Amino acid sequence: MSEGTRQETGAGAAAGRPGKRVRADAQRSTDALLTAAAEVFATSGVDAPVRQITAKAGVGAGTLYRHFPQRTDLIAAVFRREVDACAEAAPALMAEYEPADALARWLQRFAGFIATKRGLSSALHSGDPAYDSLPGYFRQRFVPVLSTLLDTAARAGAIRSDLELDPENLLRAVANLTTPADEDGTGHTQRMVALLVDGLRYGARAPGAR
């Protein structure tokens, strides 16, 4: 390689690094804002002052508005991120636990997601068109995940295979079992979801059993 080529290559690499750093910094800022906003929304509601979010994230208000010009942009982004985290927990559970346990643990995770997102839920049902796509996103992410969990458990004989469960209806049923996370709300929800899973297991037969 010639000296000129080496100099050109080095200059190109140096020119590329700042851009990568900027992108990495921007991603860290976005992640910090979304994490902080999720925590603040859970404790103070979606109308909490912006300064609470920026202080917890360790960034300035300008950074927040650069990434999320409207509050609705931030709320929608938090919702999608939390939905993704819940949906993406399923494969890890399936790899670690037997099918029925993976199903039960994921339904408990989903119930916890619903119980702690009531503030977000009220915003999403406010009629603001900024949120119109989110119910579809919810179904798009959760219905296939639960379908896979149910099918896997049914094939293993861990739950009844004759129920013809509609995953969307089951998600709605679990959501209806959740109560606000005060007093014994969390414990009550966990017990109710456990009873629901016990009902799915009742009468299950292993493959080949009569």
Task: Provide the fold topology.
Blueprint: H1 3-44, H2 50-57, H3 61-67, H4 71-96, H5 99-115, H6 118-124, H7 134-155, H8 167-177, H9 185-201
Helix pairs in contact: 1-2, 1-4, 4-5, 4-7, 5-7, 5-8, 5-9
What about the largest sheet? none
Number of helices: 9
Measured as a percent range, the helix fraction is over 70%
Structural class call reads mainly alpha
Can you give the mean pLDDT? 83
Quantity of strands, as a count: 0
Tell me the strand percentage band.
under 5%
- Using only CA atoms, what is the Rg? 23 Å
| Measured distance between first and last alpha carbons | 74 Å
Order of helix and strand elements from N to C terminus: HHHHHHHHH
Shape: elongated
Low-confidence stretches: 1-16
For this entry, give a set of tags:
210 residues, 9 helices, disordered N terminus, mainly alpha
Briefly say what this structure is.
With 210 residues, the chain is mainly α.
